[in-house]
Prior knowledge:
Shape: globular
Radius of gyration: 17 Å
Number of helices: 6
Distance between the termini: 43 Å
CATH topology: Rossmann fold
Number of strands: 8
Strand content: 15-25%
CATH superfamily: Phosphoglycerate mutase-like
Order of helices and strands: EHHEHEHHEHEEEE
CATH architecture: 3-Layer(aba) Sandwich
Largest sheet: 6 strands, mixed
Mean pLDDT: 93
Low-confidence stretches: 1-5, 206-211
Amino acid sequence: MVTVERDSALYILRHGETEWSVSGRHTGVTDISLTDTGEQQARRAGLVISALRGTAVPPVRVFTSPRKRAIRTAELAGFEVDETLDELAEWNYGDYEGLTTEEIRETIPGWTVWTHPSPNGEDPKEVSDRADLVLARVRRLLPSGDVVLVGHGHFSRVLIARWLNLPTDQGVHFGLDAAGTVVLDHERGEPRVGRLNIPPLDLSRNVFEVD
């Protein structure tokens, strides 16, 4: 019997729903908990990743952001966290922490985190440098097996862009909802997005959520 080796991949899981993610408030350094819905999403997201991986062999490493919404998501998804990484924290929005885009645009028309500064927060270069540090570590581990990162929306989208060697601001083109899963891998040596924004599994219907 011929055994076909399975290529390892990077799995990125965004934390489940919080009160601030529902209302659209920018949540960087604020340590906010998951809602009840967010906890359910996290459990279902674990089943999604298990199905996508298709193996009982655990990931070689599971890293989370230091924020409790990410750590809790990882735990509920069934992962044993190996390490929390400061580099996996969400974009620091500075003075815009806790504000919605609409509120920010009352004084800065057309503002987005991708195109405008966040006073007293991080600039795109700082976020990009953090992403590159995380991915450098991931690439060293991937020859030994899958790696799972549990983190946040904007920063995870930066990770996708940097995986593809794109500038930070190109993260705007990749959607990632609460408890969404991304699979980053390679095709013939070239980095690719294998799966994007896979929602948590709806166990009542045995299909993926689409809302």
